[in-house]
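Reminder to self: tokens first, then the designed residues, so the page reads top to bottom the way the pipeline ran.
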């Protein structure tokens, strides 16, 4: 049976640790029904299910797939859409209603976690924009694979920060308190990792604290990145002294991290090779990547259609 072209396929990913998950969905559903939106609803069933559900919706002909969730759920949905077998992948538009622990990508576009009505109205308005997608390919001789991202890829402390801040957000329940507590914990975790990177034909072999490869702002680590210019921004962060670290945290909050010139070295490129990242955590949009180096990271220009604010 053919799907109506204006029918939405909605994947609801309840906020981790929330006791009001069903109430939140009921409010969103009631508002969509009051606006006359036709939709089919699916709820995620834990880690990995969003990717499977997004792939299923794309394969079944839905032209509008809406994710009610945070950065991790969006990442799963992107991977589901990008790995779908539909011949009309370029006609699938992704809409976002922020609902997660981390909503950095949604905030880039001006979406407010507390204003689901505005997000629904913008999806109804259906203003479309092609955006870039990051691709991370891995091959260790035994298996090959690909993961996609639209915000940022983190190696080292950046990946640890996302993991810790998600945990503290579940504990505290407030974003600003989660951020401060995460920063406090990271003061005692400034571990360096032996890395070998290749960026723009330059080989970087050094002890590095963290690397951020961003198609978007990456929680402030790549503040100049935009997800529609066909480039990746890379911030290589070396170990700061304690005072430099405190200054760096303030600049990070202000979106001016690149001003910390003695510690942060920025690049702009279309591909990055991570040949070595000894004992470093790796994540894409907050989702941990368990595969190890070598990794081949590239930008796929205008690979996805996003429904953006009016």
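Designed residues (310 positions):
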């Amino acid at each position: 049976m053919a799907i109506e072209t204006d029918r939405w396929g909605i994947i609801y990913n309840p906020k981790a640790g929330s006791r009001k998950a069903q109430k939140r969905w009921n409010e969103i559903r009631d508002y969509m029904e009051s606006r006359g939106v036709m939709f089919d609803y699916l709820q995620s069933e834990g880690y990995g299910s969003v990717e499977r559900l997004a792939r299923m919706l794309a394969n079944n002909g839905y032209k509008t797939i809406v994710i009610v969730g945070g950065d991790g759920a969006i990442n799963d949905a992107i991977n589901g859409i990008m790995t779908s077998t539909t011949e009309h992948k370029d006609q699938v538009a992704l809409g976002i209603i922020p609902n997660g622990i981390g909503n950095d990508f949604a905030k880039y576009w001006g979406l407010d976690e507390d204003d689901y009505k505005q997000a629904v109205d913008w999806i109804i308005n259906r203003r479309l924009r092609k955006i870039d997608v990051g691709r991370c390919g891995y091959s260790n001789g035994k298996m090959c694979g690909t993961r996609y991202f639209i915000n940022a890829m983190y190696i080292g402390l950046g990946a640890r920060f996302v993991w810790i801040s998600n945990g503290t957000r579940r504990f505290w329940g407030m974003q600003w308190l989660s951020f401060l507590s995460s920063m406090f914990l990271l003061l005692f975790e400034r571990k360096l990792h032996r890395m070998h990177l290749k960026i723009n034909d330059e080989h970087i072999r050094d002890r590095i604290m963290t690397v951020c490869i961003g198609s978007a702002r990456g929680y402030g680590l790549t503040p100049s990145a935009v997800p529609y210019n066909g480039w990746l921004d890379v911030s290589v962060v070396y170990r700061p002294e304690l005072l430099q670290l405190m200054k760096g945290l303030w600049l990070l909050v202000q979106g001016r991290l690149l001003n910390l010139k003695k510690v942060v070295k920025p690049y702009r490129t279309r591909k990055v090779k991570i040949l070595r990242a000894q004992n470093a955590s790796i994540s894409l949009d907050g989702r941990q990547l368990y595969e190890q180096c070598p990794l081949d990271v590239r930008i796929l220009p205008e690979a996805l259609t996003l429904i953006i604010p009016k």
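DSSP finds eight helices and 16 strands in the chain.
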